[in-house]
Design goal:
alpha+beta, single chain, Double Stranded RNA Binding Domain
């Protein structure tokens, strides 16, 4: 697979979200996925039927550690953006 096709290909993940928490009225769910360098930090923030997905460059050797950091990143997104995260 070439570099560009790998970079722009869509990834279908079979990973089940492993951890979630309620924070300031939002539901934050960790959803890391396996990447070539380890577990990629990813998750989503939900509120009132609205969803904000996030993927960060951080990678971890351990899936549980990636989940922990994803929940922390979700809390930071809520604190910094609030409802603005749902605006396109």
């Amino acid at each position: 697979m070439s570099f560009w096709s790998h970079l722009f290909s869509s990834r279908k993940t079979t990973e089940v979200p492993s951890k979630s928490l309620e924070y300031k009225g939002y539901i934050i769910t960790a959803a890391p996925f396996k990447a070539p360098g380890g577990w990629q930090l990813a998750g989503q923030v939900l509120k009132d039927g609205k969803e904000h997905k996030f993927v960060r460059a951080d990678q971890f050797a351990d899936r549980d550690e990636a989940c922990t950091f994803a929940l922390s990143k979700g809390q930071l997104i809520v604190d910094q953006l609030g409802e603005a995260m749902f605006k396109a």
